[in-house]
Amino acid sequence: YLQVYLIIAVIPPILEEILFRGFLFGTLKRRLTVKWAASITCILFGVAHLEYNNLNWIAAIDTLLFSAFLIYLVQRQKSLYGAMLLHCIKNSIAFYVLFVHK
Q1: Which of 1, 24, 42, 55 is the right S-S partner for 67, CB 3.0 to 4.6 Å?
Q2: What is the pLDDT of residue 62?
Q3: Residue 46: which of 35, 57, 32 has the closest Cα?
Q4: Could you tell me if 72 and 21 are in contact, meaning their C-beta atoms sit under 8 angstroms apart?
């Protein structure tokens, strides 16, 4: 379970925060307004979480909204660490529901 936990609940949130909120959002907000940068980042984050061969739009919308909150958190804290932690917590809950609580 430890390897699966790391693959689901720890590594992806850290890398996704660096990629989406750090690099993508950071780059876009230097070129566009914060609203446009956030909108594009949220849409791409939601689309990236669509399941292959199973267009789960509810999960994509949930992920898009979660992305918006993470952007708010990053903007407010001027840091990725809080977003990384919250993202890890959310994925940990998903791990628990999928693999531990049966």
Answers
A1: 42
A2: 92
A3: 57
A4: no
Residue 55 backbone dihedrals phi, psi, to 5 degrees? -70, 85
Are 49 and 60 in contact by the 8 Å Cβ rule? The answer is: yes
- What amino acid occupies position 17? E
Q: Which of 77, 76, 93 is nearest to 13 (CA)?
A: 93
The CB density around residue 59, as the number of other CB atoms within 10 Å, is 14
Neighbouring CB atoms inside 10 A of 19's CB total 16
Instruction: Quote the CA–CA distance of 63 and 66 in Å, as a whole number.
Output: 5
Q: What are 6's two structure tokens? A: 């790391």
97 token code pair: 């529901």
40 bridge partner residues: none
Read off the amino acid at residue 22. Answer: G
pTM over 0.85: yes
